[in-house]
Design goal:
This protein is of the alpha/beta class. The protein has a single domain, classed as 3-Layer(aba) Sandwich (Rossmann fold). It is built from eight helices and four strands, in the order H-H-H-H-E-H-E-H-E-H-E-H. It has a four-stranded parallel β-sheet, sandwiched between helices. Helix 6 links the parallel strand 2 and strand 3. The chain is globular.
């Protein structure tokens, strides 16, 4: 399994360069009952329990969509009993080997999605995205709540992990964006003056979240006009 935090560290580095010079979101003022590694304002979740406990906190449990989201996760995103039984039987078989779980990360979502789809097609595998189908209808439910939005994507990754285990004995699974994506963006916004060293525990992968076998980070420079002006710079001038 993929163990080293290098992909996350390099993702944070490029996100930081991208965000440098902009105003960081003051996440510490949200007032949420949320604790994270090394920075109380960091919106990164390091366990399933941490994610669920935030949703169930009295501040958030009655926010529109939260109860429905939790119900969908527990009833629509889990393995069916017959699926779980079949998976357990397969795991006991010495001749049945699972296929790789590959994650593609990038500072450009379009590039990430395109490469992941092409790689899955080239390998005869299965392409997956986040959030998974069982939670897709909640994508725009928490746009006004920064911490709930982050918690939603954290929960989505655990749901996606279930989908991976459902398929990886049959197909190579290629996913566009996983934990690195959400963690890198949050860490970069919180540490614009200088990111923590690679050895920092802030990059530690959640112990209860499925790990990819390999993760690739694609640095995609911003497109430029013929005169060399970055498009995002020009758009800010308008």
């Amino acid at each position: 399994y993929y163990q080293k935090p290098f992909v996350l560290w390099i993702s944070v580095l490029f996100y930081t360069l991208y965000l440098k010079g902009t105003l960081a979101q003051n996440v510490s003022s949200i007032g949420a009952p949320f604790k994270s590694k090394e920075n109380s304002g960091l919106l990164v979740f390091y366990s399933f329990a941490e994610t669920i406990n935030l949703f169930k906190h009295e501040i958030y449990i009655n926010v529109t969509g939260v109860r429905e989201l939790l119900d969908a996760f527990h009833y629509d995103c889990q393995l069916l009993p017959e699926e779980r039984k079949k998976l357990e039987e397969i795991e006991k078989s010495p001749t049945k080997l699972r296929r790789p779980f590959i994650v593609i990360e990038s500072n450009n979502r379009h590039t990430r999605r395109m490469v992941a789809k092409k790689l899955a097609n080239h390998m005869g595998g299965l392409y997956m995205n986040n959030p998974p189908p069982c939670l897709h209808r909640f994508r725009e439910s928490f746009l006004e709540h920064a911490i709930l939005k982050k918690a939603f994507y954290s929960l989505s990754m655990y749901a996606s992990a279930v989908n991976v285990t459902r398929q990886w004995y049959n197909d190579v699974v290629v996913m566009a964006g996983f934990w690195h994506d959400q963690a890198a963006y949050s860490i970069a916004r919180t540490h614009q003056s200088g990111i923590p060293p690679k050895e920092s525990s802030i990059y530690k992968w959640p112990s209860d979240l499925l790990r990819p076998d390999v993760a690739f980070f694609i640095h995609s420079p911003p497109p430029r006009f013929s005169r060399g002006a970055p498009i995002n710079h020009v758009m800010r001038k308008r």
